[in-house]
Write the structure tokens for this entry.
Amino acid sequence: MVRYSMSTVQVEKEKSVLEVKDLFFSFNNKDWALQDVNIEIHEGEFVGIIGPNGGGKTTFVKLVLGILQPDMGTIRLFGQPIKNKRREIGYFPQIKDVDTDFPITVHEAIIGARVQTKIIGFITKKDKEIVERVMKMVDIYSLKDRKLNELSGGQRNRVFLARALATEPQILILDEPTAGLDVTLQKMFLETLKRLSKTVTILIVDHNLSLLEEYVDKFLCINRCMAHGINIHEVHEEKGKRVSGECIDE
Amino acid sequence: MSSILSYLFFQQALIVAIIAAVPCAIIGTFVVIKRISMISGSISHATFGGLAIAGYLGISPIIGGVIFGAFSGAAVGVIKRRAKNRLDPILSFIWAFGMAIGGIFLYLTEGYTQDLFSFMFGNILTIEFWDLIALIILTVIIVLVAILGFQTIQLVLFDEEYAEVRNIPIMLVNVLFYVLVALTIIVIVSIVGIILLIAFLTLPAAISLYYQKTIKRTMIMSGIVLAVSNVSGLFIAHFIQLPPGPVIVVLLSILYVFSMFYDWIHKKLRKRRHPIEPHACDMELESFGVFQNLLQEDSIRTSPTKSVETENC
């Protein structure tokens, strides 16, 4: 069984943002989709989550978001159970899972991030100001009245980034946000995230290891039975060999 | 025309025809964009059971319908969340069970053959005064809840997973939404009956979506389309001596087919008039600007690599 904690090798004690202990999860009660995962992520870290298809990256993200419930183990966000703190998360879902044909404008999609937890809630003036600011920040203000399905892939990605930022998050979790973008746009997107990582902790799921390594502080490799960190040097040195099973297969 | 307008039953029918358009437009738009006609069909057929039981007991069909409809709507809301993969057979069960209960109680009710036609195809001209008042109250409730909860309902229907991460009470919103669907169905049943009500719920929104971009505008246009169709259908049905419910649905169907062709022709013409620009493929490059603007604001931090260990499974 893997017992690994990133926190054990931190030189200085940093504030823990996400703490995963002895996590086990199964979809069918027969095989573990994830087993014995122990992770700690600290404030201000920019972490790339990598691993093969079907390795459990998205499952891990959904467990961290509280959408799936672990069979065993605990996940704590800012030292508290997820449900208490998950409004601090800015979530960028896999775009293929979102119904982009839904007749909603860019502005309506982003303002959804400001909806209160009550059934009957109102959007305040402050909410509108935040949404406007975020739209200007990612340069989609001119698209605010356009429908989602009228946008290009890159524009759509910026809409979902804006929605994630509109929650004023302390942690950003992005599930394959660069999917469908060309390499230049992917780099631009990651550079933006890099800049944002000064003020917010970031977890990004992506397949493109070569691209990610230029930007992230560290990697978290998830491959069913294993979930552990790899530092950037190891990625460089071990590329082409085996660092963590199938995590690096170039 | 003035002679028919002087009859109280026709005046009441006109009022119902117009007010019913409002909840239909709001809820119907959500039903169409979420492609949940099957769920709505299931709730409507379950409601049939309540209407028939109310008829058997001699109470207002609206009361029976509201109780049965609200219960089945709430059940669908819970089941949809809990049994995602088994939803289809469960919906079929609710659909068939409601119809079976309805069939049994309708058979047990005296003079059921006459009622059967009203249940199946509706009869807006026979609505009584207190039923009219009940329908108005029901409409006000649906519209108020839908307007006040619009942002939340829209978020849950658009991206349920994201709404869950935002701590929105998904189950409660789903239950509330399907109860609203059920209550809307009660309002419609009196006009077009069980069999045709799905057309009422879906066609106005489907027509409007050919012309409108946003949900709110689609709702407004659906309301206008339905109100106009209802009123026109009532008059046409009166003059050609046919039941109004089916006539209204035929009108809506004609509008739908027209809109489909209009959209098709409009797209063809637009392509001819505005051929694709040779450099349109460069559009994506506009994205460069934004990222560069963000980057220029200050330099990118280059964090020192954090050393971590690796261990295999």
